[in-house]
């Protein structure tokens, strides 16, 4: 089922469920601009540069990228609804002075002799059959000294979403009804997210009703591992690497940030579990090892697959909730807010068995992980 990640589901329903709220374009541009700054791309950097974007989806984000006036802008997507939407935007003048080349193609196997100064690929690499190989393939389009930006997802960052997905059997099987029910049911959750910009029906489609594959997770260390022969870790959102080296001591061809980022990530990866927590205000034990908790979250994802695919409600109560109780206990002293929300999830799910979509989920409603992380790399110049 993971053979054509994203594409099969989107094509089947003729959708591109990643539309952004553009009712306030200043806000939309500020969001995108600040993301780019966080990952090391100040707006002026894109002017006249060559940019290729893999998987632009609705093109809502491409509008911003185009506004920075790249000299060449290529958009590659394999979903016919995306391609139609991109052409529509182009015809309506949404890309301003820039005329992007729009290519209807699978990213895997995409042929282009050119190399680009910036390669963008957002919301695409995790969930592929082989994310490492996928990433390696798109990086071949980066010129020496060029930047590659991708997104990653971890077992911690997705746990809150996985909890929401195990509710799938309680929604209609028919997709339009399920979207309607989901929008109503998750409204409170989504409104609690102050920065939420995706349209709610698209969020329900992509996060609750989209059949995620067995290889959902692709973490920052996995991405580093995949391309460290040619690339150096550059920036990320959230930012977790501080580099205290005296620049004169950094004099080799390798920048040295790959190992530093892996170490820094290992210390702080648990914070991806709950966006409400500000690590700057926390005193987690330094050099902690979160591998046992990460293993639990991986197992939760596997159990969720059976529940989601087979509508196996029994497994929610006999397997998933007992594991959530274990995770909540382990988190208890470290992240009490998250532990509390997990307890509220457990009691909410018990209520759901009786009251259906009327169940009360208390503080669980406001718990979201740090979903996808953004990470940029620089191709080493020979
Ligand atoms: C989750 S959406 C992300 C869209 C957009 N980048 C964003 O962040 O809003 C994934 C996009 O990548 C495209 N995509 C995923 N895998 C692909 C593949 N193997 N070949 C071509 N397009 C692909 C999908 O069609 C979709 O437009």
What does this structure look like?
This protein is of the alpha/beta class and about 375 residues long. It folds into two domains: about 5-155 and about 215-235 and about 370-380, Vaccinia Virus protein VP39 (Rossmann fold, 3-Layer(aba) Sandwich), CATH 3.40.50; about 160-215 and about 295-365, no CATH class. The chain is built from 13 helices and seven strands. The chain has helices spanning about 5-15, 25-40, 60-65, 80-90, 130-140, 160-165, 175-190, 200-210, 220-225, 255-270, 290-310, 315-330, 335-355, and strands at about 50-55, 70-75, 100-105, 115-120, 140-155, 230-235, 370-380. Strands 3-2-1-4-5-7-6 form a seven-stranded mixed beta sheet, with helices on both faces. Helix 4 links the parallel strand 2 (about 70-75) and strand 3 (about 100-105). Helix 6 (about 160-165) packs parallel to helix 11 (about 290-310) and helix 11 packs antiparallel against helix 12. It is globular, with a radius of gyration of 21 Å. The mean pLDDT is about 95.
């Amino acid at each position: 089922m993971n053979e054509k990640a994203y594409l099969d589901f989107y094509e089947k329903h003729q959708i591109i469920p990643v539309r952004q709220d553009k009712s306030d374009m200043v806000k939309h541009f500020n969001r995108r601009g600040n993301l780019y700054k966080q990952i090391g791309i100040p707006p002026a950097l894109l002017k006249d540069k060559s940019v290729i974007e893999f998987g632009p989806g609705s093109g809502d984000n491409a509008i911003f990228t185009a506004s920075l006036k790249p000299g060449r802008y290529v958009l590659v997507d394999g979903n016919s609804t995306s391609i139609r939407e991109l052409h529509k935007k182009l015809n309506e003048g949404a890309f301003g002075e820039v005329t992007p080349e729009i290519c209807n193609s699978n990213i895997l196997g995409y042929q282009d002799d050119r190399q680009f100064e910036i390669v963008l690929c957002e919301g695409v690499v995790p969930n592929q059959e082989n994310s490492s190989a996928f990433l390696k393939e798109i990086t071949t389009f980066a010129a020496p000294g060029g930047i590659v930006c991708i997104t990653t997802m971890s077992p911690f960052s997705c746990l809150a979403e996985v909890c929401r997905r195990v509710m799938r059997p309680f929604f209609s099987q028919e997709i339009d009804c399920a979207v309607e029910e989901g929008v109503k049911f998750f409204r409170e959750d989504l409104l609690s997210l102050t920065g939420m910009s995706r349209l709610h029906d698209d969020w329900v489609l992509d996060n609750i009703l989209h059949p995620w594959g067995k290889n959902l997770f692709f973490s920052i260390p996995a991405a580093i591992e995949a391309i460290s022969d040619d690339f150096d870790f550059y920036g990320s959102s959230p930012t977790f690497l501080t580099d205290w080296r005296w620049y004169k001591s950094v004099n080799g061809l390798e920048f040295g940030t790959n190992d530093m980022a892996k170490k820094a990530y290992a210390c702080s990866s648990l914070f991806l579990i709950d966006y409400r927590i500000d690590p700057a205000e926390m005193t987690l034990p330094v050099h902690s090892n979160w591998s046992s908790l990460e293993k639990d979250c991986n197992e939760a994802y596997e159990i969720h697959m059976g529940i989601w695919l087979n509508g196996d409600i029994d497994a929610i109560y006999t397997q998933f909730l007992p594991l959530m109780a274990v995770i909540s206990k382990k988190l208890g002293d470290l992240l009490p807010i998250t532990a509390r929300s997990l307890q509220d999830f457990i009691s909410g799910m018990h209520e759901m068995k009786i009251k259906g979509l009327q169940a009360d989920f208390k503080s669980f409603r406001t718990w979201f992980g740090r979903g996808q992380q953004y990470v940029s790399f620089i191709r080493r110049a020979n």
